[in-house]
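Changelog-adjacent note: as of this version, every example in the card shows the full chain rather than a window. The one below runs 289 residues end to end.
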Amino acid sequence: MTADTTAPAAGPAFGRSAFLGCGSMNEAVRAGLLAAGTPAGNVGATVRRPERAQELRGRYPGLTVLAEQEEPEANSKAAAGASVAVLGDKPAGITALCRSIAPALGRETVVVSVAAAVTIATMQAALPEGQPLVRTMPNTPLKVGRGAVGVSGGPGTTDAQVQAAAAVFAGAGTVVLVPEEQLDAVSAVSGSGPAYAFYLAEAMAAAGVELGLDADLSMTLARETVAGAGLMLAQERADPAALRRAVTSPNGTTERAIAAFDAAGLPGIIAAGARAAAARAAEISRELG
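Full-length structure tokens:
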């Protein structure tokens, strides 16, 4: 099965969305959904602390937010009647969260996980038989509306249900539909990928200091260069190889730098890192399973 990169329209295809736990990832997805025009009254959320709930209600009038410290059954109450329930707990807490909301779920409620490495089979074992399930692999640029999200539907989950789950993310980034067995690879490329770009910026800044630049100046140059290059890559049909060639004049300074990267085996180093990330994701899945 190949990836389907057709992006769904932003906003769920039906009903109400519930975000169970508003950590940074769920917060980014929910913010994107609201920014795309979904009425706040069609979105619910749960948080741990009452003051956090009050903050979100003030920021998004009409948003229903329940605090677990005030209502121990907050997650079940939010999930009841929802068309899509997005699980925002850490990987180690997803199974317990599934068990806690299982009695409140409707038969057609699509349960969506944003937690890395928690397999569909692991979640199925903690949910009612036949519960529609979607596993996703989002990344942190969702926070700025430039995320990339891999989406996989579970057995028995209909295309319409997968699309409804995928549409929840469309307001905050690009959505690709992939088979579950490819999600570890998605994690290695886009899930961990922002850290690779940040690592590059760190290394560029350090190189500038080694060449005699002031540390703050070098960091500013590295940060803005990586951010600007990212915006160029975000243009429609942008090709990184073509963009690289456009900067690389024959026998120039950039060509010499690229040659040094190739001689050091940088492409192979990046590939090795991605393999290591994918292998670790598989290990975590086995540990949690």
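Structural remarks: The first helix runs from residue 24 to 35.
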